[in-house]
């Protein structure tokens, strides 16, 4: 997995609450058997007209935000379907950090498995970051995972919390499966004892 | 609270911890892994690329459901959409190559993964069950810890039979007393989400309890737990009891003989202790629950059928904007009576309401009646076995005589990945679980409700209070 340490980039504002994974990547794009190439269809139904042309009002279509790497979003981002295609599409577009007051559980998990950082901030802070993002392309937000800080274009610094294990994996670019396979002996032991205590499973 | 007192969730969790790190991150053992065609191809490909095997193929069950056509001609084996065909083929190849249990498209046991698992006895009390699908919560109806995972985690479970997890908090949702006539499990689960919001359960595992929950059949309990995810919870649970054991007993993969007895002994210990600690408690009176429908584009947009479309200004914060957007998308105006909303299509099916009891409830309303002229209506049974049973009970004839299409099993119009879709602006009374924008087809408008309410709507052509037809 790719490492995530620091990022300085343009942040796009999406104040809408309950942005679900069907909006992030509609189901017609789930028929792929690959992980890559979903960026063009990110937010497809909000982003394109029926004839395939872009809707100029949609935030990621505006010149200022076409290269956004950070998304500042409304409450309960990523709710709905478990599709990992949602973080894949965001990452493929170039978005590596999403900041919101809350995230749906599965989406939150999925981000970390793809070298992305979802950041939970209180409403007051999200409000400040949302205004900062609204400044457009000249405003760059800085995210430092090691220090656990988000810095606005004005130099205002906010701290965020992140699970220590997940932080470690992101900083080092560690692959979960490789880590777990190192514990094969413990898994074997568990299976042997479960075979005694719950033989019907 | 004594330190020994545990919730049901605590008990199942503790029985599955392989290892716990100092920061509380656990390696959790997974008893059953259900797999479908949409979220698994990249995971199997990952195994291939790293030369890894499926750790426990005997605990892994694969079934195609999301993409499969549900029209009768699918028996011919022709799947027109090329991308769907590629995905279904990938599952077929992967299931056979990695040697997991598999119910292919033409097997009578095929169906929606969350219906097949319980039906075949793969889902048992006290287990950990995962699937690359958010509605895995369904299996919590058996008192098993069941939740959805992403594709990276699917690969992790395939390779190691474990998941890296941190424990959630405990939330109790109690439904007291009794339901009034015409009120079903679907009305319970929608009403809970209407009350707590779609993020109300975030960070929690919910246990549903109370007299009204105890009185539900297994089918009804599955409907309730199915939508725990719509309330944001990682999982929903109902403690197993005699209803559970009676359902499980005799299923193909349920334990038999001495093992059954041993299993029962353990299963009977699976309940929350009286003085267990709850981080959050929600209580709803069963008598207060009405037949409900959704009016907006979030499953929390729930109101009694006797209500009117709300004004966006009646909400607070970001929800005001979301409600405006929802009304525009749904083509509704504030103040309009819900029972005046006319519909074009009725969809009965999905992992929420595609079981035999759901079909019975809908057929009871439809018996001897016809659907409104011009209405498109379909029943998509949750599995081939549900379909067969409904035919045996004469339900299929009732549906067909009423004017419904009688389909083969699959997810169908729940998410419209197969050809069953709404056209832009088309309005649907659906028994599924999500009313998101575009969920049932681009521009399609979805109202969620119980099977009986959907059947009533099919007859009148509008959202209808089923109690008027009983
Ligand atoms: S029926 Fe709908 S919700 Fe259930 S698994 Fe299929 S697509 Fe998902």
Automatic annotation (TrEMBL), chain A:
Coiled coil: none annotated. One of its GO terms (biological process) is L-leucine biosynthetic process. It is an enzyme of class 4 (lyase). Keywords: Amino-acid biosynthesis, Branched-chain amino acid biosynthesis, Leucine biosynthesis, Lyase. Heterodimer of LeuC and LeuD. HAMAP family: LeuD_type1. This is 3-isopropylmalate dehydratase small subunit. It comes from Pseudooceanicola spongiae. The gene is leuD.
UniProtKB/TrEMBL annotation, chain B:
One of its GO terms (molecular function) is 4 iron, 4 sulfur cluster binding. The lineage of its organism: Bacteria, Pseudomonadati, Pseudomonadota, Alphaproteobacteria, Rhodobacterales. [4Fe-4S] cluster binds at residues 351, 411, 414. Keywords: 4Fe-4S, Amino-acid biosynthesis, Branched-chain amino acid biosynthesis, Iron, Iron-sulfur, Leucine biosynthesis, Lyase, Metal-binding. Its EC number is 4.2.1.33. It is an enzyme of class 4 (lyase). This is 3-isopropylmalate dehydratase large subunit. It comes from Pseudooceanicola spongiae. Pathway: Amino-acid biosynthesis; L-leucine biosynthesis; L-leucine from 3-methyl-2-oxobutanoate: step 2/4.
